[in-house]
Amino acid sequence: MVKDVPFISERNAKYLYELIIREELSDILELGIAHGTATCYMAAALDEMGTGKITSVDLIETADAFKPSPEEQVVNTGLDKFVEIVRMQTGYNWFLHDEIKRQTQNDICSPKYDLCIIDGPKNWTIDGAAFFMADKLLKEDGLIIFDDYLWRYDSNNRDATDGITHRSLSEPEQSTPQIQEVFELLVKQHPNYSEFTVDPSTGWATARKAVSDNKTYTVTYNQTNKDVLTAVVQGMKKFGVVRK
Known about the structure:
There is one protein chain. By secondary structure, the protein is of the alpha/beta class. The protein is 35% helix and 25% strand. The chain contains eight helices and 13 strands. The chain has helices at 10-23, 37-49, 70-76, 92-102, 124-137, 171-175, 178-187, 226-236; strands at 27-31, 53-59, 83-88, 104-105, 108-109, 113-118, 138-146, 160-161, 164-165, 193-199, 204-209, 216-219, 241-242. The strands form three sheets. Strands 3-2-1-6-7-11-10-12-13 form a nine-stranded mixed beta sheet, with helices on both faces. A two-stranded antiparallel sheet has the order 4-5. β8 (160-161) and β9 form a beta hairpin.
């Protein structure tokens, strides 16, 4: 029902579905949803388990920008009981503010989610901040996934992406894969995370929230090109690399 609707590949959809079932990830936070196709695959996994909830957050202004909409897709697939779609005026970081506030008592934020997926404007400032806020809400041993690991603002013909006007950015900001910078400079260095997986060919980077002195860094690739090799070399500088 959703296989021909962008923006998730069959490979990534299968990975998400199996990951959720294998690790019993029942409380999921999805930041950035577009058509909600990934949402449907995740909801199907929750349906298979018979429990769980996905909280999916995106902009109010994009509600009519994607056809079919995520609201339509979760209803058409009969999976809407597993999904709550939240529309925000300025994006998911203010939702994270509200959620941290809701989860805070006596100056302590209680974690809530088993899995967080960040797939929004692909921006250092927005998504870097989102990582630190999502970390407060992510349970111990939970997973965080970033999409568009190597995406760059100068790699497409858009004038703007999720509210970010391309021409307003400096040349380095346009030519640098900003999600890669978030993952390499913020996530990998964070003391709460110790298991990192990068697959440049699918655009995904994953980290597990687990405090450990034994950090691992795995790069999976199935092609040889400059971007992939750059990601491998960066990983080898600090962590052991497993090649598949």
